[in-house]
Amino acid sequence: MPICPQQFQQALLAWFDQYGRKDLPWQQKVTPYRIWVSEIMLQQTKVSAVIPYFLRFITSFPTVVELAQASQDDVLAHWSGLGYYARARNLYQCAQIILNEYGGEFPQSVESLSSLPGIGRSTAGAIASISMGVPAAILDGNVKRVLARIHSVAGWPGTSAVSKRLWQLAEQYTPQQQRIADYTQAIMDLGATLCTRTKPSCGKCPLSSHCTAHSLSNPTDFPGKKPRTKKPLRQTTMLLVEAQGQIFLQQRPAQGVWGGLWSPPESSCAQTWLNNRNWLAHNIQPLPPLRHLFTHFQLDISPLWVQLEHIPKQLSEAGNGWYPLDRLNRPRASQDLGLPAPVVKLIKQLLTVLTSSPNATQTAN
To answer: pTM higher than 0.70, yes or no?
Structure first.
């Protein structure tokens, strides 16, 4: 049966008071900065994976001013392993804008927040409602699922018509005066803990008696799934240039795949790459291939171990560096260089080869 906004809010908040999550790190000492960082990290990433990254990030950059004054390399190093690195680059750029154009204070309106890099309408709504008490609707993946099921909104939310309908519902149910922050957290929690993508716990849901999808016994049909498309396959050869237990890395361009991170050089011909630098290798050896899945394509990496006897005295280009392999093999929490996840795997692979090879062990140490 239909439910009015006031009933919706009351039922949801009563459930939240008893069962909602209230001990997440970003729910303590709430500020626009802490909510912003958490919301960006939580995009396409599970809460359990975000928590250790959030804690380390906030410890290193406790305020937006300190984030803006840090180096992009340091920010990316703290993000290493979370994926979707454009989020980190936008976070860094956004912090600088807030410092330089807003005096280090977050703007107070959804419109102004939405104009900042990496902050969309839903993220702006979360920041404004949770940390400022502004009556702003949100529509993250959890909220889309809850609303689509209650009203049996068919179709994939990525289409404009479905998105428009869900936004209408989100705004309809958002309270205008009281417990705005709690409501925002409550509806996200409901989607994350009960109204899950698979095997939803409808029997525990405070809104199940008003849920059309539940009455039809097909909640998992909503929202509609994204149409499947075959991911194209790309290939590359990465040169793991190693000397005396150190590896040669290059910083990638700011834009594009792994923008601003550090990775081995890529070349279809190792010998040509070496000749261009007047470097001499005494060992070139293929290592097991690695496939990495991106959102829109697959990448097959063919790694080549290129071993030099000594580290060259001069580098021919800026943005290069030699780094000790054991330093790069630390747990992510102690890394100080932004590395893509596949590169971390390749470094571990190379270290295994070095420690197991009688001829290479001496060099690696």
So the answer is: yes
